[in-house]
Amino acid sequence: MSRRARPREKRRAKQLANVAFQHADVATGDPRWDGAFDQVVNVHSLYAHPRPVEVLQLAWRALKPGGRGVFVNFTRRVPLAATFQAIRRRDGLGSAMRCLRWVLPNAIFEAIRRPIGPHYWPEAEFEARLRNAGFTVLDLRRTFFDDVSLLAWVRKDSDQKGG
């Protein structure tokens, strides 16, 4: 089952007639997405995007007033060997091996991607960029092992930035 078909199937199984799933790349700036969504989700792509501030602005534009967003961004690079060793010392070999499911693909991506950014934002900067894009920040917390990511829960209050 495809990534897009799975939520639709869950909606049918739970008989949720008022729920629809739409996949869109808001970074294109396509005006048909303006105010089209109740929810936007962006996980671990802002740091690698050439225009992350624009992505935040376009995500704000894509939300309906009252819509919510979830953004997750890295605070720093995750070095493969050092991370593996630190987790092995702290939590044991099993945990260190499990962390490779994420750390190894990320290290490969970092090694081969186009050299743009990276846009690692510490907590205060991430929150400021979300607010500058027009969002009300409802919650911001560190997540993932060693607090390498920030998860932000935001809301678009109106069609006017800042309110």
Q: Compute the gyration radius: what is it? A: 18 Å
Query: If strands are numbered along the chain, what order do they take across the biggest sheet?
Result: 1-2-4-3
Q: List the helices and strands in order.
A: HEHEHHHEE
Distance between the termini: 40 Å
> What is the CATH first-level class name of the largest domain?
Alpha Beta
CATH superfamily descriptor of the largest domain: Vaccinia Virus protein VP39
Mean pLDDT: 87
The number of distinct structural domains comes to 2
CATH level-two architecture of the largest domain: 3-Layer(aba) Sandwich
The helix/strand class is alpha+beta
Can you tag this structure with a few keywords?
globular; 4 strands; 163 residues; Rossmann fold; 4-stranded mixed sheet; 2 domains; 38% helix; single chain; alpha+beta
